[in-house]
Amino acid sequence: MMKRAIVTACAAAALLCAAAAWGEEKPDAAKARAEAIAGTLKAIDQELAAHGGSFEAWGKSVQPFRDDLKAKWSTKDNFRFIGQDASVIQIDGFDGRPEGKRPFDAIVAFDKQLRARGIDLIFMPLPDKLAIYPDKVVVSDGAAGRPARVPADRMVCVSVKHLMKRLLEAGVEVVDLYTLFRDWRLKNPDKPLYYNRDSHWRNLAAQIAGEKLAERLKRYDFVTKALAGGNRYTVKPEYRADKPDDILTVREAKSGAYYRDDPRSPVLLTGDSNTMYNMSNQIAHLPAQVARHVGMPLAFVAPTFGDAPVKLKSHLAGRRVILWTPIARGLAGPWPVVDLGAAPSGGK
To answer: Is 338 among the domain residues?
Structure first.
């Protein structure tokens, strides 16, 4: 037991030393974080105003599509969805759920405890495939069936927008992929973001999400330091043989070696199987797509859902930023409020 404690203490000390080597955050990093929160909140407020000014009104505008999902339905263009995708679409929010199953409570508690340790949290729920491609649903109404009644703006996941707004108002930094992915799809109809017969996103979606996260990380001095001498990474398009997909693998610019996550990194990303996609054979998973823009590797712990605080409890030493990226359908599962214990001496 004593030997294990010594090893754990040494590992924690190594992480702290590694994090210190990356440097401190920019003096205006807190301001940039506040501006990111305010900007995202403003955008969601504008969407809310355009949908009647309340989430109840927004939900009513989506109700015909929700009703179609309760009927017998199929899909067009050889698409396939997971039934769980519909669970978060059917509701306006998660606040009425019992204790231990409210994402807001768990995320705010985690954020507060991380901040006491001097760690920033960036929360980015990954849109389910159905939320981005609702127009692929066909209702079995009559011999030929009919298209599902999808809102003109294709925004059908009111509950996640509601959650994001509440988190932003509580000071939690959020990245909204829903509007970003919707807009991308409308502008690039020939470039799918998800596989047709697989619930996972394509590497293209991971690239877009990774770049968005990297934009937030560039406010920190340790990223500025990592990029000061030029980006250590480059990318190379490769073909994934088992799926019709071109992916961008991330490599060391000098050696050509594939990117590798670094458990000592001040930035830790955690999420579900989407974040792990293209991790084993070709290194092109979400952490790699973030790293290629910030010039430094990330630490990675997966898969996690609402249990992330439990699984990350022993991985917090030396961290400066936690990127939490669960798939949205996981919001319908357990979300326990976790007590991380007293913050270490010197925590903010």
So the answer is: no
